[in-house]
Amino acid sequence: MAVRNGQVTSAHPIMVSVCFLDLSCVSYDRITSEDLLAQRRGVLMPAIEAVVFDLDGLILDSETPEYLAWQAVYDRYGLEFPRAAWLENVGRNDGPFDPLAPFRVTGSPASPADITALWQERRDALLRDYLTPLPGVVRLIDEVKRLGLRTAVASSTRLARVRSLLGKLGLDKRFDALAGGDEVGRAKPAPDVYLLAARRLDVRPEACVALEDSENGVRAATSAGMRCIAVPSALTRGMNFSGADLVVASLAEVTPEMIAALSAHSPA
């Protein structure tokens, strides 16, 4: 099997070698697309039945316009936006960092409502330039579905927003299940939204591989019992991804072969 631009072009075997964060490696010198289908039937290795995608920062870069919008709002009032504190919010919906805090104090130059409206206006203007799937997203969805794996989105954001963004990206028909942060009691890094996605897929969490761009997301996925591949964004690259099974620079690097090798890896 040859892989060109992420596409499987034949059924001839190649060497696949994947090394994990615990320094163990899995290598296969004979793995083909037929092998991957057999793997799903439990012939070769513990079967992976589904791939679960995060949304923001993984399927599309919606985090950069959010960050730039807050930075612009703070600049307007002569304030420095605390990027490190804001990053604590990435991947969760319970907002441990409150960006409106400086505007809640007596004598603030603007009300929290006005600041929120200003931020939303700036974010929406920026988001138009980011409304495109990130590299590797569409290819990977197509490849894993061709192999019979199910797909889902598990996001901290509201389910209505998940559906809206996927619709704008033309991806709303490509997933078998969706799970939003407003449907569960606990936000990431709790496992709730990933467990909900697995239930809607009718797949055990242990048979899922999650794809995440944030530390909170990795913790949520692994707490749910899923394997996890971390795909840090430009904003999240400095986070601690030691809990992930694999860390890659881009989703364009993730292949069905890599997912198959991951399914054979036993976590430490």
Keywords:
disordered N terminus; 6-stranded parallel β-sheet; Rossmann fold; 10 strands; 268 residues; alpha/beta; 15% strand
Task: Please explain how this structure is put together.
β6, α6 and β7 form a beta-alpha-beta unit. The N terminus is likely disordered. α2 crosses α4. The chain is an alpha/beta fold and 268 residues long. It contains 9 helices and 10 strands. The chain has 2 domains: 146 residues, HAD superfamily/HAD-like (Rossmann fold, 3-Layer(aba) Sandwich), CATH 3.40.50; 65 residues. The protein is 34% helix and 15% strand. Strands 7-6-5-8-9-10 form a 6-stranded parallel beta sheet, with helices on both faces.
Uncertain stretches: 1-45
Across the major sheet, the strand order is 7-6-5-8-9-10
Strand content: 5-15%
- Briefly note the CATH topology name of the largest domain: Rossmann fold
CATH-level-4 superfamily name of the largest domain: HAD superfamily/HAD-like
The overall pLDDT average reads 83
How is this fold's topology laid out?
Blueprint: E1 3-4, E2 7-8, E3 14-19, E4 25-31, H1 33-40, E5 50-53, H2 63-76, H3 83-87, H4 112-127, H5 137-146, E6 150-154, H6 159-169, E7 177-179, H7 192-201, E8 208-212, H8 215-223, E9 227-230, E10 246-247, H9 256-263
Parallel strand pairs: 5-6, 5-8, 6-7, 8-9, 9-10
Antiparallel strand pairs: 1-2, 3-4
